[in-house]
Design a protein that fits this description.
Blueprint lengths: L2 E6 L3 H17 L2 E7 L4 H4 L7 H18 L9 E7 L5 H9 L4 E5 L14 H8 L4 E4 L10 E5 L7 H14 L2 E8 L8 H15 L5 E5 L3 H11 L4 E6 L13 H8 L4 E5 L1
Parallel strand pairs: 1-2, 1-4, 2-3, 4-5, 6-7, 6-9, 7-8, 9-10
Antiparallel strand pairs: 5-10
Helix pairs in contact: 6-7, 8-9
Length: about 270
């Protein structure tokens, strides 16, 4: 892990993300790119629309000064920081910055239980998740000394999720965490027999070229199963696959992904399929 990106809006939540990024950076000798969106639209920076360029410069100076003060924190001492300010609030740019700097991870803050649903329904975090080709770690609470010893990764074990699974395996090795794989079996139309589940898992692991154990966890819904299992194994992170711009993977159709993110008390990390 060499480069982390932290989008900040000077909120308490973005500072939570910054603390986690700082903790990871210190452990892995990584650089942290602190990205702030200035939120200027085209009309505001175009003199033809009646907005003077000097006003844009003034706003940029103000943002630079505010960001400098925001980064003046004791926990950022000895962390290599690079502040980046973008004119627009276009969150696809986060992925562009990630590609340009070959970032390994985006760390983003979000509100707690009530607000975390915004990750998947029109929020800034949702836009970042959908556009990001690198993993996105969403932080909901203050975790100054971020440790990951147990990591739950849940998916439907259809072969389309293999790319996301491989990223999760690499991520767990990077953090030195024990990876717990889980398939949640539920009653109703999505119910599978034990034989069918093992057949699917075997095909999945064979394609992924991994020999790992997968827990089959029975519950009344997928989201409850993922959260209950994660609590049972004392997970520090819950990982889920996404299709990026295409939306949540088939395993997380409807509100399942939203519910997992909403009700999870621990960080959630997404991996693009």
């Amino acid at each position: 892990m060499k480069t982390l990106i932290v989008p900040v809006d000077f909120s308490e939540q973005s500072e939570y993300a910054l603390k986690v990024a700082a903790s990871l950076a210190k452990k892995h000798q990584a650089e942290v790119l602190v990205l702030h969106m200035l939120e200027l639209n085209v009309a505001m920076i175009s003199s033809s629309e009646g907005f003077h360029p000097e006003q844009t410069v003034m706003l940029l100076k103000y943002a630079e000064n505010r960001l400098s003060k925001f980064l003046d924190k004791p926990y950022l001492k000895d962390v290599k920081l690079t502040p980046i300010i973008k004119h627009f609030k276009v969150f696809s740019e986060v992925n562009e910055v990630a590609e340009k700097h070959k970032a390994d991870l985006i760390v983003m803050g979000s509100h707690g239980t009530d607000g975390l649903k915004e990750i998947f329904i029109g929020s800034n975090a949702e836009k970042v998740v959908r556009n990001s080709d690198v993993p996105v770690l969403v932080i909901k609470s203050d975790r100054p000394d971020f440790k990951v010893e147990h990591f739950t990764f849940a998916c439907d074990f259809n072969t389309e999720s293999v790319p996301a699974f491989k990223k999760a395996v690499e991520f767990s090795k990077l953090l030195g965490a024990k990876l717990h794989l889980v398939y949640v079996n539920t009653p109703g139309d999505d119910f599978l027999s034990t034989a069918d589940i093992y057949k699917r898992i075997s095909k999945f692991l064979n394609e992924a070229k991994e020999g790992m154990e997968v827990e089959i966890y029975n519950d009344y819904s997928v989201e409850r199963g993922v959260l209950n299992y994660s609590e049972q194994c004392n997970a520090d992170i819950v990982g889920i696959p996404t299709h990026g711009r295409k939306g949540i993977s088939h395993f997380f159709m409807g509100s399942i992904g939203e519910d997992i993110a909403n009700h999870s008390k621990i960080p959630v990390v997404t991996f693009k399929i």
